[in-house]
Specification:
heterotrimer, A alpha/beta, B alpha+beta, C alpha/beta, B: alpha+beta, Alpha-Beta Plaits, two-stranded antiparallel sheet, 2 helices, 4 strands, 13% helix, C: alpha/beta, Rossmann fold, eight-stranded mixed β-sheet, 14 helices, 16 strands, 38% helix, 22% strand, globular
């Protein structure tokens, strides 16, 4: 007989189901892809830590059965940096939203990319601050109605792949929640990479972003992703801006090699200190 | 989990062989969960499972006589 | 347990307070610091950056204090003893994460080498005006522990105590230095590692199935686990239950926040620390801390030379405030004199604790320098009348 367990179940804190995400929200879909990437990569779950910030996507930390940390708004990346530096054997994933990572967390995003800290960042981008009721985010496309831009947004929006590539990320990809297989594959690839990996996932927020802009529900949005996405692997990130109803360029944009932060640190310190350099093996105090 | 389903429609829409359709039944939250209408067409690809934002459904391949089946979690 | 000798620079040194603090952290077992430069604290992490690669650990200079104050907490959950250092403006930026440490019960040390404020203020000159902020700076109800050294030797010794208290109570500890103590150079004796007591991390011995991240065994302080050990626990800043799961209800809030408060208050006796002299026959007691206590000592000596019966109570553990000690003392003296490098902060606590039994005199100073002994003496004389 068939195995009656949903492959994602072992990764979930089933005692906390059902989750708080709305009907048609794509965050749960990204978690499925994440779970499958973990299965495929055969990552040791005991040496995996997941760090999130505040927001709808930030709630992922509370639903996955891993060492998980729900930290402060915008600061998942520096917390993750501390985890990784104290225990380099950990695989550290940052799972957070566009507002958390690129607005309040923007400074930390670019510095972690610059330093090439070995983190896998999954940025669920629903183009809005969802949890708090649908305010403008740095990624909100022009003319979109939000609760703090009731007459339509007029700020230019961030192009996140472009930003993190410029800052130094070694792996940059964008998919939508329609591209489940590609997303799972990108996450698996990021696990093989050493350095700062950034995977943006465009996702619906049917309750706020889509509804206020009369863009339909979650399913309508998924159909829009299907119709209007164009896979352009290797596309120059400067060309992948998003608009409210226009084309969505997806794909793996950047996959390059740069020494990661700890490799650089180790090299510099051992060169300068020679035998006096004591490589930190484990900081675990007990 | 039938009870987890919020009838978003992703699984119905994106099943490549149109195995599913929204049923007229209700779960306790008042949603119409999908049901299998074309079981023989299920290839066990598990796209439904990957799409479902509520972890309510998944597809799997059974090894019984090569038949493929889609499983709907139906524990409470 | 004993200190790890790799971090202990045994010997007789001539160090300033900042440098001594760094050595104290290393002796206590700190192997991670995240910092951001700010005068007059920077030397602490500069020294740590130079020392820790030869001891085994790491330092990272983060892009701002918001990052530094949370990076150190990630390191704690990854298994390290960790700290950061700052001064007024950075301390203000760190407030949210001090609250996060209190809420998630992350043991760590925040060093504030106080300088003139508010705002940019006097970067290179002393003050003691962050004392209330140390206690109340973050939002919500929480308790912290704060220590105030008054010499480079104490910057060494008390930093170890700060780390030990942090581990014992799973709380962020505020190490409240000031610019003079930080930059004055004196003899610092660093003992052998086997003579230094260090409190280990309160690590759980429970199995994965039995472990509750925020469950307690009756002593109000939960046991910890680190990421990567298989416990698969959840930590959140939201109001949470014993599993660490968000539980945002009034009853859970009451239970959690009261425990966070009680665990410190119940340990007040173990935390309390002060230096007392000549209290038996005193009419007037000078209550002071940090650099001001050294000036106050001179004023007390001058007053005694004049025949005034003056005693000294130097606060070393400032928060939780030693209410009981002050209350008892106030019952049989005439007055308390409280000089500080601020316009009246700890004096409010002294007056409150005295409960009207003795008069309380403030000797404020806006900062930028230290009191002259005569300024304190004048008030002692007035209080003695």
């Amino acid at each position: 007989m068939s195995d009656l367990v949903n492959p994602v179940e072992p990764f979930l804190r089933t005692d906390r189901m059902p989750h708080i995400w709305c009907p048609g929200c794509g965050i749960g879909t990204t978690v499925n892809c994440f779970a499958r990437a973990l299965i495929e990569s055969k990552i040791d779950l005991e040496s995996l830590a997941l760090v999130s910030g505040i927001g709808c996507t930030g709630r992922v930390a509370g639903y996955v059965k891993l060492d998980s940390f729900h930290t402060t708004h915008g600061r998942a990346i520096p917390f993750a940096t501390g985890l990784k530096l104290a225990n380099p054997k950990l695989n550290v994933v940052v799972y957070s939203g566009d507002g958390d990572l690129s607005a309040i967390g923007g400074n930390h995003l670019i510095h972690a990319a610059r330093r090439n800290i070995d983190l896998k960042v999954i940025c669920v981008n629903n183009l809005i601050y969802a949890m708090t009721g649908g305010q403008t985010a740095p990624t909100t496309p022009g003319h979109a109605i939000t609760s703090t831009a009731p007459y339509g947004a007029y700020e230019p929006a961030f192009n996140l792949p472009h930003l993190v590539e410029a800052a130094g990320a070694v792996y940059v990809a964008r998919w939508t929640t329609f591209h489940v297989r590609q997303l799972a594959r990108s996450i698996a690839e990021a696990f093989k990479k050493k350095g700062f990996s950034f995977i943006e996932v465009i996702s619906p927020c049917p309750t706020l972003y889509q509804r206020r802009n009369k863009l339909g529900d979650g399913l309508d949005t998924m159909k829009y992703y299907k119709d209007k996405s164009r896979v352009r692997n290797g596309a120059p990130t400067g060309e992948v801006d998003l608009t409210m109803t226009g084309e969505i360029v997806v794909g793996k944009f950047v996959d390059r090699d740069r020494p990661d932060y700890q490799t650089l640190m180790r090299a510099q310190l051992s060169e300068s200190l020679g035998e006096r350099f004591v490589e930190q093996t484990e900081m675990v105090c007990s | 989990m039938v009870e987890r389903c919020k009838a978003c429609g992703f699984c119905v829409e994106f099943c490549p062989t149109k195995v599913l359709a929204l049923s007229s039944a209700f779960n306790s939250k008042g949603y119409h969960p999908p049901h299998v209408v074309n079981p023989e067409k299920c290839s066990g690809c598990d796209l439904c499972g990957m799409y479902c934002p509520d972890f309510a459904i998944y597809g799997t391949r059974t090894s019984v006589a090569g038949a493929k089946e889609k499983e709907k979690d139906n524990e409470g | 347990m004993k200190a790890d000798p790799r971090g202990v620079l045994t010997g007789i040194h001539f160090l300033d307070g900042d440098h001594a603090c760094c050595e104290g952290a290393l002796a206590a077992g700190a192997r991670f610091a995240a910092g951001y430069p700010i005068t007059p604290s920077t030397e602490i992490v500069e020294r740590f950056a130079a020392r820790v690669p030869t001891v085994g650990g790491s330092f990272i200079q983060m892009e701002d204090e918001l990052a530094a104050s949370i990076t150190l907490q990630g390191a704690v959950w990854g298994g390290a003893k960790a700290f950061t250092v700052t001064s007024g403006p950075g301390f203000s930026l760190m407030m949210e994460h001090i609250g996060y440490a209190a809420m998630t019960e992350t043991p760590c040390v925040f060093v504030d080498v106080q300088r003139g404020g508010p705002s940019t203020g006097l970067p290179t000159l002393p003050a003691q005006a962050d004392m209330m902020q140390a206690r109340w700076g973050s939002h919500g109800d929480y308790e912290i522990i704060a220590l105030t050294p008054n010499s480079p030797q104490e910057c060494f010794d008390l930093t170890i105590r700060a780390f030990n208290l942090a581990e014992e109570f799973r709380v962020p500890v505020m190490f409240m230095m000031d610019e003079v103590v930080g930059h004055m150079t004196e003899k610092v004796v660093i003992p052998r590692a086997e003579d230094i007591e260090v409190t280990p991390r309160r690590h759980t011995r429970k199995s994965v199935e039995d472990y509750l991240p925020y469950g307690t065994n009756g002593d109000m302080v939960p046991e910890m686990a680190h990421a990567g050990e298989g416990y698969k626990f959840h930590v959140t800043g939201l109001t949470h239950d014993e599993h660490g799961y968000p539980n945002m209800t009034a009853p859970m809030q009451d239970k959690l926040v009261r425990r966070l408060q009680e665990k410190i208050r119940a340990g007040a006796d173990r935390i309390a620390m002060c230096e007392e002299a000549n209290l038996d026959d005193a009419d007037v007691v000078v209550v002071s801390y940090g650099i001001t206590s050294r000036v106050a000592q001179r004023a007390i000596d001058l007053a005694r030379a004049r025949g005034l019966r003056v005693g000294k109570l130097r606060l070393i553990a400032v928060w939780p405030f030693p209410d009981q000690r002050i209350r008892d003392l106030a019952g049989h003296i005439k007055a308390l004199v409280v000089p500080e490098l601020n316009l009246g902060q700890m004096v409010r606590e002294v007056e409150r604790a005295a409960a009207g039994q003795a008069k309380t005199y403030a000797v404020p100073h806006a900062g930028g320098g230290v009191h002259r002994p005569e300024d304190i003496l004048k008030v002692i004389v007035e209080a003695s009348r």
